Amino acid sequence: MTDAAELRRRTLELLAAHPPASTDRDDFLKARFDAGLAWVHYPEGLGGLGAPRSLQAVVDAELAAAGAPDNDPRRIGIGLGMAAPTILRYGTGEQKQRYLRPLWVGEEVWCQLFSEPGAGSDLAALGTRAVREGDEWVVNGQKVWTSSAHVARWAILIARTDPDVPKHQGITYFVCDMTDPGVEVRPLRQITGEAEFNEVFLTDVRIPDARRLGEVGDGWRVAQTTLMNERVSIGGIRLPREGGMIGPVSATWRERPELRTHDLHQRLLTLWVEAEVARLTGERLRQQLVAGQPGPEGSGMKLAFARLNQEISGLEVELLGEEGLLYDDWTMRRPELVDFTGRDAGYRYLRSKGNSIEGGTSEVLLNIVAERVLGLPSEPRTDKDVAWKDLAR
Q1: CA–CA distance from 230 to each of 49, 174, 308 (Å)?
Q2: Phi, psi of 132 (to 5 degrees)
Q3: What CA–CA distance (Å, rounded) separates 4 from 190?
Q4: 262: Cβ–Cβ under 8 A, 6 or more apart, which residues?
Q5: 377 contacts: CB under 8 Å, gap ≥ 6
Q6: Where in the sequence numbering do the catalytic residues fall?
Q7: H or E segment and range at residue 347
Q8: Distance of CA 1 to the CA centre of its chain
Q9: pTM score
Q10: Pairing state of beta strands 110-113 and 154-160?
Q11: For each of the chain's 393 residues, which pLDDT tens digit applies?
Q12: Residue 14 · residue 31 · CB < 8 Å
């Protein structure tokens, strides 16, 4: 059994063999992956050592103290938080070997082709079709709200492979090469002025059957692994005290006493406490992950994340008064990542409006928490046994 002392020894050996100050960043990250110190709870040969997930902190602390580079997790969050756990659970040996190392190192960015114009909250109603031709699948359809599609090499994709069965049963899960012919990415400009989201059109895109994850028709079950991990990665991100959105508004409160009022003080205190409770709950959730796959609790964390971000950013704009109405730059850009704390209050206020939509709408997540966490009766669903092709549209 690999323990903390063994991990510390292995980390020091890595640092001795590849000094961060004199080693190319990518070379260091590859050596770290090969040493099993990328994500220690993954199997040996896939960036891990089969150690408890909780021991990752031992490795990270030693590397941070030595000034070692990280893999810029915000830029590759979809790959780390969604694609990798799904590939690990459902991928073949060849798929794991091909995708996980460049994914973790950051050589290949991933995106997620799930939502569609007519299938967002009701994702299982998706209509993108994949038709088998020999050893390939020909895919046609449209996806939307695709973060990082403009920089991604790979995408996790779900498509309809059998329209003659109920909607949850006729879906299959694929890995799509975003550089293939027939893949077109168009920017979606947001309220912030930027276009980190995209819509993706798939026209006769050919995907080899070797890039299928899971069994044909079992894509909904595979997608649940992705979605549960997505909500944990969004809502359960590890933060220090006063990390995230509560940090900038707390700093402004301390530095600008002339802006303070009694009402704003009470609201800030309430939100500070709620943010700290959410942070500690996220720590507990990550500890629970050591025992297995993420469950519906991640939906509760994502709900809290969205609500808190919107309330905190609203308070910050009010605290700043006229300054809060300013916005730094409306230039159309296509950024590689979302930077909440590195921008001004206006950006945080506008961008946080998307938090209750992305990664599952708050309304859908409330249903998940009600049914799967609290055990309340399910909502009536009249379409569960109806073939997808017969659904009203």
Answers
A1: 24, 17, 18
A2: -80, 135
A3: 45
A4: none
A5: 371
A6: 230
A7: helix 345-351
A8: 30
A9: 0.90
A10: parallel
A11: 578 999 999 999 999 999 999 999 999 999 999 999 999 999 999 999 999 888 999 999 999 999 999 999 989 999 999 999 999 999 999 999 999 999 999 999 999 999 999 898 889 999 999 999 999 999 999 999 999 999 999 999 999 999 999 999 999 999 999 999 999 999 999 999 999 899 999 999 999 999 999 999 999 999 998 988 776 666 556 778 898 899 999 999 999 999 999 999 999 999 999 999 998 888 777 766 655 556 666 778 888 989 999 999 999 999 999 999 888 888 899 998 888 878 899 999 999 999 998 877 898 889 888 888 889 998 888 888 899 999 987
A12: yes
Residue carrying the six token digits 């990550």: 286
Three-state helix/strand/coil letters over 156-206 = EEEEECCCCCECCCCEEEEEEECCCCCEEEEEECCCCCCCCEEEEEEEEEE
Q: Dihedral of the CA atoms 300, 296, 214, 118 (nearest 10)?
A: -50
Tokens matching residue 269:
């205190």
